[in-house]
């Protein structure tokens, strides 16, 4: 890349940032920040609760509690959501989930009865999740198949900001185009 081209590219990313951020809460969409550092993969998911759950308030019925538990179970099965290059032998090493509307006992997984309910903000609510992977063979790590669309069928667009060995890139993923490669 020529210096001028790389300058324009950097400018484009800078301009894109705030514009994308202003439209952060769109039902059916989510945002991913992906950082590849040697054999470490760190992924941050920021999504309207609606895109993952279908509602945006504390579960009010047993059926909604079940729906929330099912969402948490899918998020905790991180290897099903993000499939890295098989030869890199990556393993999920951590998942952290936060959402004000969902009771901590539900977010923690398992079947404990929620002691403390989630907070009903009366507004649009989000969910944040952090996923970490460690890869035994970083040299074989070149792509991640983002399978969020299979797990969460309301989702149809994911905005990705990625920092990989190739630098910083921005990408839009859809159910038909969901592979991050570098
Ligand atoms: Zn909403």
How are the secondary structure elements laid out?
Blueprint: H1 3-22, E1 29-37, E2 40-48, H2 49-53, H3 62-76, H4 78-81, E3 82-84, E4 90-98, H5 104-107, E5 126-135, E6 143-146, H6 148-151, E7 157-164, E8 167-173, E9 179-181
Parallel strand pairs: 1-7
Antiparallel strand pairs: 1-2, 2-5, 3-6, 4-5, 6-9, 7-8
Bound molecules: zinc ion.
Zinc ion (ZN) is lined by residues 25, 27, 48, 50, 56, 124.
Percent of residues in beta strands? 25-35%
Overall structural domain count: 1
Helix content, binned percent: 25-40%
Uncertain runs: 15-22
The separation of the N and C termini measures: 16 Å
Q: Over all CA atoms, what is the radius of gyration?
A: 17 Å
| Number of strand elements | 9
Judging from the principal axes of the Cα atoms, what is the shape? globular
Oligomeric category: single chain
Order of helices and strands: HEEHHHEEHEEHEEE
Ligands present:
zinc ion
Total helices: the number is 6
What's the story with the biggest beta sheet? 6 strands, mixed
Which key features would you list for this structure?
182 residues; alpha+beta; six-stranded mixed sheet; three-stranded antiparallel sheet; 6 helices; binds zinc ion
Textual characterization of the structure:
The protein starts with a helix and ends with a strand. About 30% of the residues lie in helices and about 35% in strands. It has one domain (about 25-180). Residues about 15-20 have low confidence and may be disordered. The chain has a six-stranded mixed β-sheet with strand order 4-5-2-1-7-8. The protein has about 180 residues and is α+β, with helices and mostly antiparallel strands. Strand 7 and strand 8 (about 165-175) form a beta hairpin. It has helices at about 5-20, 50-55, 60-75, 80, 105, 150, and strands at about 30-35, 40-50, 80-85, 90-100, 125-135, 145, 155-165, 165-175, 180. Bound molecules: zinc ion.
